[in-house]
Amino acid sequence: MCLNSAMTSIKVSFSQADFQPRAEQLAETLGLQLLAASPSADDPHDYCLNLGPQGLSLVPATSHSHGPIICQFDSGANSHRRKFGGGNGQAIAKAAGVSGKFKPSVVDLTAGMGGDSFVLASLGCKVKMLERNIIVFSLLEDGIARAAESEDSSLREIIARMRLLSGDARSYLQDSMADDYADIIYMDPMFPERKKSAKVKKEMQAFHQIVGADEDAAELLPLALERARYRLVIKRSASAGYLGDVRPSYSLEGKSTRFDIFAQRKLPD
Protein backbone atom coordinates (compact mmCIF):
# COMPACT_ATOMS: atom_id res chain seq x y z
CA MET A 1 0.00 0.00 0.00
CA CYS A 2 1.40 3.37 -0.96
CA LEU A 3 0.11 6.80 -0.13
CA ASN A 4 -1.09 8.70 -3.18
CA SER A 5 -0.21 12.16 -1.90
CA ALA A 6 -1.27 13.75 -5.18
CA MET A 7 -4.87 12.76 -4.44
CA THR A 8 -4.97 12.86 -0.64
CA SER A 9 -3.61 15.60 1.59
CA ILE A 10 -2.64 14.39 5.06
CA LYS A 11 -1.12 16.50 7.79
CA VAL A 12 -0.06 15.84 11.37
CA SER A 13 -1.85 17.56 14.25
CA PHE A 14 -2.04 17.46 18.03
CA SER A 15 -4.96 17.99 20.38
CA GLN A 16 -2.99 19.32 23.36
CA ALA A 17 0.22 21.29 23.71
CA ASP A 18 1.86 18.37 25.54
CA PHE A 19 1.73 16.37 22.32
CA GLN A 20 3.34 19.01 20.11
CA PRO A 21 6.92 17.64 20.36
CA ARG A 22 5.77 14.13 19.40
CA ALA A 23 3.67 15.56 16.58
CA GLU A 24 6.64 17.49 15.24
CA GLN A 25 8.78 14.36 15.37
CA LEU A 26 6.10 12.28 13.64
CA ALA A 27 5.67 14.87 10.90
CA GLU A 28 9.42 14.90 10.28
CA THR A 29 9.63 11.09 10.26
CA LEU A 30 6.77 10.72 7.80
CA GLY A 31 7.68 13.71 5.67
CA LEU A 32 4.32 15.35 6.31
CA GLN A 33 3.41 18.92 7.18
CA LEU A 34 2.47 19.84 10.74
CA LEU A 35 -0.94 21.46 10.90
CA ALA A 36 -1.11 24.81 12.63
CA ALA A 37 -2.68 24.79 16.09
CA SER A 38 -5.46 27.00 14.71
CA PRO A 39 -5.73 26.04 11.03
CA SER A 40 -7.21 28.51 8.57
CA ALA A 41 -9.02 28.06 5.29
CA ASP A 42 -5.65 28.58 3.60
CA ASP A 43 -4.40 25.38 5.22
CA PRO A 44 -6.49 22.73 3.40
CA HIS A 45 -6.21 19.00 4.08
CA ASP A 46 -8.25 15.83 3.70
CA TYR A 47 -7.07 14.03 6.85
CA CYS A 48 -5.03 14.60 9.96
CA LEU A 49 -2.92 12.14 11.87
CA ASN A 50 -3.78 13.48 15.28
CA LEU A 51 -1.88 12.83 18.50
CA GLY A 52 -4.03 12.97 21.59
CA PRO A 53 -4.63 11.32 24.99
CA GLN A 54 -6.26 8.25 23.41
CA GLY A 55 -3.42 7.70 20.97
CA LEU A 56 -2.78 8.37 17.28
CA SER A 57 -5.93 8.67 15.18
CA LEU A 58 -6.80 9.42 11.58
CA VAL A 59 -9.31 12.26 11.51
CA PRO A 60 -11.15 13.42 8.38
CA ALA A 61 -11.28 17.16 7.76
CA THR A 62 -15.06 17.08 7.34
CA SER A 63 -16.92 15.91 10.44
CA HIS A 64 -19.82 14.42 8.45
CA SER A 65 -17.49 11.98 6.67
CA HIS A 66 -16.79 9.55 9.51
CA GLY A 67 -15.33 9.58 12.97
CA PRO A 68 -11.68 9.23 13.98
CA ILE A 69 -9.99 5.92 13.16
CA ILE A 70 -7.74 4.55 15.86
CA CYS A 71 -6.12 1.16 16.36
CA GLN A 72 -7.48 -0.37 19.57
CA PHE A 73 -6.69 -3.90 20.72
CA ASP A 74 -8.15 -3.57 24.23
CA SER A 75 -11.67 -2.65 23.14
CA GLY A 76 -14.07 -2.64 20.22
CA ALA A 77 -14.06 -5.24 17.46
CA ASN A 78 -10.61 -6.60 18.27
CA SER A 79 -11.47 -7.24 21.90
CA HIS A 80 -14.80 -8.81 20.94
CA ARG A 81 -13.17 -11.17 18.42
CA ARG A 82 -10.58 -12.15 21.00
CA LYS A 83 -13.17 -13.00 23.65
CA PHE A 84 -16.14 -14.21 21.61
CA GLY A 85 -14.80 -14.96 18.12
CA GLY A 86 -14.92 -18.71 18.47
CA GLY A 87 -11.31 -19.64 19.15
CA ASN A 88 -9.86 -22.34 16.91
CA GLY A 89 -13.32 -22.89 15.43
CA GLN A 90 -13.42 -19.60 13.53
CA ALA A 91 -12.78 -19.55 9.80
CA ILE A 92 -9.44 -17.77 9.90
CA ALA A 93 -8.09 -20.31 12.40
CA LYS A 94 -9.22 -23.22 10.23
CA ALA A 95 -7.74 -21.58 7.14
CA ALA A 96 -4.37 -21.14 8.88
CA GLY A 97 -4.47 -24.67 10.30
CA VAL A 98 -4.42 -23.57 13.93
CA SER A 99 -5.19 -26.35 16.38
CA GLY A 100 -4.54 -27.33 19.96
CA LYS A 101 -1.29 -28.98 18.85
CA PHE A 102 -0.22 -26.67 16.01
CA LYS A 103 0.38 -22.95 16.50
CA PRO A 104 1.96 -21.93 13.19
CA SER A 105 4.28 -19.04 12.59
CA VAL A 106 2.54 -16.58 10.29
CA VAL A 107 3.67 -13.78 8.02
CA ASP A 108 0.87 -11.33 7.25
CA LEU A 109 1.92 -9.59 4.04
CA THR A 110 -0.86 -6.98 4.16
CA ALA A 111 -1.28 -6.14 7.84
CA GLY A 112 -3.61 -3.16 7.52
CA MET A 113 -4.93 -2.32 10.99
CA GLY A 114 -3.78 -5.69 12.33
CA GLY A 115 -7.17 -7.25 13.12
CA ASP A 116 -6.55 -10.65 11.57
CA SER A 117 -2.98 -10.82 12.87
CA PHE A 118 -4.30 -10.07 16.34
CA VAL A 119 -6.78 -12.95 16.12
CA LEU A 120 -4.04 -15.37 15.08
CA ALA A 121 -1.73 -14.11 17.82
CA SER A 122 -4.53 -14.50 20.37
CA LEU A 123 -4.71 -18.17 19.33
CA GLY A 124 -1.02 -18.65 20.09
CA CYS A 125 0.59 -17.95 16.71
CA LYS A 126 3.70 -15.86 16.34
CA VAL A 127 2.84 -13.31 13.67
CA LYS A 128 5.13 -11.10 11.64
CA MET A 129 3.21 -8.24 10.00
CA LEU A 130 4.23 -6.15 7.01
CA GLU A 131 2.66 -2.82 6.13
CA ARG A 132 4.03 -0.49 3.47
CA ASN A 133 1.62 2.43 3.73
CA ILE A 134 3.12 4.99 6.11
CA ILE A 135 -0.23 6.18 7.46
CA VAL A 136 -1.63 2.73 8.16
CA PHE A 137 1.72 1.60 9.58
CA SER A 138 1.79 4.56 11.99
CA LEU A 139 -1.72 3.86 13.27
CA LEU A 140 -0.96 0.16 13.77
CA GLU A 141 2.40 0.85 15.40
CA ASP A 142 0.74 3.19 17.89
CA GLY A 143 -1.99 0.67 18.68
CA ILE A 144 0.56 -2.06 19.33
CA ALA A 145 2.65 0.21 21.54
CA ARG A 146 -0.34 1.16 23.69
CA ALA A 147 -1.52 -2.45 24.00
CA ALA A 148 1.99 -3.54 25.01
CA GLU A 149 1.65 -1.27 28.06
CA SER A 150 -1.83 -2.48 28.99
CA GLU A 151 -2.66 -3.55 32.53
CA ASP A 152 -4.17 -6.69 31.00
CA SER A 153 -1.35 -9.25 31.19
CA SER A 154 -3.05 -11.62 28.73
CA LEU A 155 -3.29 -8.81 26.17
CA ARG A 156 0.40 -8.02 26.64
CA GLU A 157 1.22 -11.68 26.01
CA ILE A 158 -0.71 -11.60 22.74
CA ILE A 159 0.98 -8.39 21.60
CA ALA A 160 4.37 -9.92 22.41
CA ARG A 161 3.67 -12.49 19.69
CA MET A 162 3.14 -9.73 17.11
CA ARG A 163 6.06 -8.11 15.29
CA LEU A 164 5.43 -5.20 12.94
CA LEU A 165 7.70 -4.35 10.03
CA SER A 166 7.48 -1.37 7.69
CA GLY A 167 8.18 -2.32 4.13
CA ASP A 168 7.12 -3.90 0.88
CA ALA A 169 5.99 -7.53 0.89
CA ARG A 170 7.75 -8.33 -2.37
CA SER A 171 11.11 -7.12 -1.04
CA TYR A 172 10.59 -9.06 2.19
CA LEU A 173 9.82 -12.28 0.36
CA GLN A 174 12.72 -11.85 -2.02
CA ASP A 175 15.15 -11.19 0.83
CA SER A 176 13.89 -13.94 3.14
CA MET A 177 16.38 -16.68 3.92
CA ALA A 178 15.33 -20.32 4.13
CA ASP A 179 15.39 -20.28 7.94
CA ASP A 180 13.08 -17.24 7.94
CA TYR A 181 10.27 -18.94 6.01
CA ALA A 182 6.86 -18.98 7.69
CA ASP A 183 4.58 -21.94 8.30
CA ILE A 184 1.69 -19.88 6.95
CA ILE A 185 1.74 -16.84 4.70
CA TYR A 186 -1.41 -14.74 4.91
CA MET A 187 -2.68 -12.08 2.53
CA ASP A 188 -5.71 -9.82 2.74
CA PRO A 189 -5.41 -7.53 -0.30
CA MET A 190 -7.54 -4.41 -0.32
CA PHE A 191 -10.84 -5.27 -1.98
CA PRO A 192 -11.93 -3.11 -4.93
CA GLU A 193 -14.17 -0.26 -3.79
CA ARG A 194 -17.84 -1.11 -3.74
CA LYS A 195 -20.16 0.58 -6.19
CA LYS A 196 -23.27 -0.17 -4.14
CA SER A 197 -25.07 2.45 -2.06
CA ALA A 198 -24.63 0.50 1.18
CA LYS A 199 -22.17 2.22 3.48
CA VAL A 200 -18.72 0.72 3.75
CA LYS A 201 -17.29 0.75 7.27
CA LYS A 202 -15.32 3.86 8.06
CA GLU A 203 -11.87 2.24 7.91
CA MET A 204 -12.56 1.14 4.34
CA GLN A 205 -13.84 4.56 3.35
CA ALA A 206 -10.60 6.13 4.51
CA PHE A 207 -8.31 3.40 3.24
CA HIS A 208 -9.84 3.40 -0.23
CA GLN A 209 -9.17 7.12 -0.45
CA ILE A 210 -5.68 7.01 1.06
CA VAL A 211 -4.43 3.67 -0.21
CA GLY A 212 -6.58 2.47 -3.08
CA ALA A 213 -6.70 -1.17 -4.16
CA ASP A 214 -3.69 -3.48 -3.94
CA GLU A 215 -3.31 -3.71 -7.70
CA ASP A 216 -0.01 -5.61 -7.48
CA ALA A 217 -1.21 -8.27 -5.02
CA ALA A 218 -1.30 -11.05 -7.63
CA GLU A 219 2.40 -10.50 -8.31
CA LEU A 220 3.15 -11.78 -4.79
CA LEU A 221 1.63 -15.20 -5.44
CA PRO A 222 4.69 -17.04 -6.85
CA LEU A 223 7.00 -15.71 -4.12
CA ALA A 224 4.48 -16.36 -1.35
CA LEU A 225 3.94 -19.94 -2.51
CA GLU A 226 7.68 -20.46 -2.54
CA ARG A 227 8.15 -19.12 1.00
CA ALA A 228 5.19 -20.78 2.76
CA ARG A 229 6.08 -24.06 4.43
CA TYR A 230 2.54 -25.36 4.75
CA ARG A 231 -0.02 -22.93 3.39
CA LEU A 232 -0.67 -19.66 1.65
CA VAL A 233 -4.00 -18.21 2.79
CA ILE A 234 -5.67 -15.41 0.86
CA LYS A 235 -8.70 -13.58 2.23
CA ARG A 236 -11.10 -12.37 -0.44
CA SER A 237 -14.54 -10.90 -0.73
CA ALA A 238 -17.05 -13.73 -1.13
CA SER A 239 -18.01 -12.42 -4.57
CA ALA A 240 -14.45 -11.76 -5.80
CA GLY A 241 -12.63 -13.96 -8.27
CA TYR A 242 -9.47 -15.83 -7.42
CA LEU A 243 -6.45 -13.58 -6.97
CA GLY A 244 -4.55 -13.56 -10.26
CA ASP A 245 -7.11 -16.08 -11.58
CA VAL A 246 -5.11 -18.80 -9.82
CA ARG A 247 -7.31 -21.54 -8.38
CA PRO A 248 -6.45 -22.51 -4.77
CA SER A 249 -6.38 -26.04 -3.36
CA TYR A 250 -9.73 -25.29 -1.70
CA SER A 251 -11.70 -22.46 -0.13
CA LEU A 252 -13.60 -21.79 3.09
CA GLU A 253 -16.59 -19.64 2.23
CA GLY A 254 -18.54 -17.31 4.50
CA LYS A 255 -21.35 -14.82 3.96
CA SER A 256 -19.14 -11.87 3.08
CA THR A 257 -15.58 -13.23 2.92
CA ARG A 258 -13.77 -16.28 1.63
CA PHE A 259 -10.43 -17.84 2.51
CA ASP A 260 -8.58 -19.34 -0.45
CA ILE A 261 -6.06 -21.93 0.76
CA PHE A 262 -3.03 -23.06 -1.21
CA ALA A 263 -1.88 -26.24 0.54
CA GLN A 264 1.84 -26.91 0.13
CA ARG A 265 2.13 -29.97 2.36
CA LYS A 266 0.34 -31.79 5.15
CA LEU A 267 0.17 -29.92 8.45
CA PRO A 268 2.12 -31.49 11.34
CA ASP A 269 0.11 -33.71 13.67
Number of domains: 2
Strand residues, percent = 15-25%
SS class: alpha/beta
Task: Count up the helices.
Answer: 9
| Mean of residue pLDDT values | 87
Spatial extent as radius of gyration:
19 Å
Largest sheet: 7 strands, mixed
Q: What name does the CATH topology of the largest domain carry?
A: Rossmann fold
H/E order of the elements? EHEEEEHHEHEHHEHEHHEEE
Shape: globular
**Number of E-state strands:** 12
Structural commentary:
- The chain is of the alpha/beta class.
- The protein folds into two domains: 61 residues, S-adenosyl-L-methionine-dependent methyltransferases (3-Layer(aba) Sandwich), CATH 3.40.1630; 188 residues, Rossmann fold (3-Layer(aba) Sandwich).
- It is 30% helix and 23% strand.
- It is built from nine helices and twelve strands.
- A seven-stranded mixed sheet has the order 8-7-6-9-10-12-11.
- Strand 3 and strand 4 form a beta hairpin.
- Helix 2 packs parallel to helix 4.
- The radius of gyration is 19 Å and the shape is globular.
- The two termini are 36 Å apart.
- The N terminus is likely disordered.
Please supply descriptive tags for the structure shown above.
globular, disordered N terminus, 269 residues, S-adenosyl-L-methionine-dependent methyltransferases, alpha/beta
SSE order and pairing:
Elements lengths: L9 E5 L5 H11 L2 E2 L12 E6 L2 E6 L8 E2 L5 H9 L6 H6 L8 E4 L6 H8 L3 E6 L2 H15 L4 H8 L1 E5 L2 H7 L6 E6 L14 H9 L10 H7 E10 L12 E4 L3 E7 L6
Parallel strand pairs: 1-2, 1-3, 6-7, 6-9, 7-8, 9-10
Antiparallel strand pairs: 3-4, 4-5, 10-12, 11-12
Helix pairs in contact: 2-4
